[in-house]
Amino acid sequence: MNSAPAGTEPRHDSWWGRLTRTRSEAEAAELQTQAQGENDPDVQSINRCTPGAPVVVRGIVRSVTIRPRSAAPALEIELDDGSGSVTVVWLGRRRIPGIDAGRSMVVRGRLTCHTDNPTIYNPRYELKPSSG
Q1: Which of 15, 17, 35, 117 has its CA 20 to 30 A from that of 26?
Q2: Contact, 35 vs 45, CB < 8 A?
Q3: C-alpha distance from residue 86 to each of 34, 78, 98 (Å)
Q4: Which value, in Å, is the radius of gyration of the alpha carbons in the chain?
Q5: In this predicted model, what pLDDT tens digit does every residue of 31-71 receive, in sequence order?
Q6: Cβ neighbours for 9, distance < 8 A, ≥ 6 positions apart
Q7: Residue 25: in which H helix or E strand, if any?
Q8: CB atoms within 10 A of CB 97
Q9: For residues 63, 85, 99 and 113, what is the CA-based torsion angle, rounded to 10 degrees?
Q10: Cα–Cα distance for residue pair 121/108, rounded to 1 Å
Q11: Buried b (16+ CB within 10 A) or exposed e, 100-121
């Protein structure tokens, strides 16, 4: 789930690295800083979460999708914290007020990896103030 290409080091450790990093690297570093600034000691980086374990992650909603699953609706989001992303699914929901692209939130649930995409189903969540 690491966003950096294999064999490369992040370039944000020096002033020159901060000056020359790409926009996506800068956004990832900012998201990681926000997640680390969270007062909840249980918050983990997405790339360090263990499949099958209960997790607490904080990130930014990158996309919101409604998917029909077995004739029942499902609200699906992609949550990104700069270290990686996870799919979050609420079964039986078409919309949850306040959950929109760009929103910051904390999600608590069990991480499943029955596919190549890590997913959390029907988690508890807390909406955070949007940055900027």
Answers
A1: 117
A2: yes
A3: 17, 6, 19
A4: 15
A5: 666 555 556 678 898 888 888 999 999 999 999 998 876 67
A6: none
A7: helix 23-36
A8: 6
A9: 100
A10: 10
A11: eeebbbbbbbebbeeeeebbbe
By the 10 Å C-beta count (0-12 exposed, 13-18 middle, 19+ buried), 55 is classed as buried
Strand partners, 110: 54
* Residues 35, 32: Cα–Cα separation, whole Å: 5
CA atoms within 13 A on the CB side of 29: 14
Structure tokens at 108: 């608590």
Q: Are 41 and 106 in contact (CB under 8 A)?
A: no
Q: Residue 120 corresponds to which tokens in the numbers above?
A: 């959390």
Enter the tokens of residue 69. 């699953």
Say yes or no to pLDDT of 73 above 70: yes
Predicted model pTM: 0.72
For 108-125, write each residue's pLDDT tens digit.
999 998 767 899 999 999
